[in-house]
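User: Run a structure prediction on this.
Assistant: Running it now.
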Amino acid sequence: MKFYIVALSIFLNDSLFAQWLDEKIFSDLFRKENTGIDLKLGQEEFPAPDSIGTNTGKDITIIENKSLLELLAERDKASVKIDINGQIFYATYVFDSNWDIWFSLKPENSWGAAWTEKELEGGVYYSYKDIKLIIRIIDGVINIQYSPYESIDLKKEDIFSSLYRNSYKITFGGIVTYAIFRNISPLTEEEGTVALRIGSDGLFYYSLTLDKNIENAPRWLLAINSVLYGMKINDDSLSFVSKPIQIKKTIFFDEKKINF
């Protein structure tokens, strides 16, 4: 699956838009969340994973392996399927190497296009075969207009809910469940894996891990009940791994929250 960027922005009449989405996505390197465990732990008490010797192979256990090709093949299934004049499209979000969100529209059995949310605020034009679309954000909702009087609305929350509900799942420590899906970054086409979870606040949290960064050592997603959990590339598989540590606190490493 590849994404070729079609980002011909058109400046539409401001009267067509009632309100633009003001997305504020932030990241904390050490995010503490109340999961029923005492989390009164400052960043200074828990150094970055690299500084506690987690890059060695010692004591690292493989929990499960998942084929990278299988994960990639499941990507369309996790998208929102829409029918426009008999042509099937898959709507989803993809992530660039800076973890910024791009809306993607992919025709069935073809390559897709992707745009930033800022581009959608101005409106973009996209055509596939004889189908011509205007895609924009109206009142915080992605609107796909395919005729002067017909359009489809997609909520950001519904797209992320589909990604979480229909993607491969892995549960760490019997407590925290991640939806895992493959990602090809727009512009650079770097391959990677997104880990998406639902926090106790009901919101989505995600992180992107590029393949090149976990070929030689794991990337740790969280620590829970004295165990680190993460993932690593092993040949043509994504390995989910664990490593015991002395710290009993629950900490989530380097992730972003999705605001709706």
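The chain has a mean pLDDT of 82.
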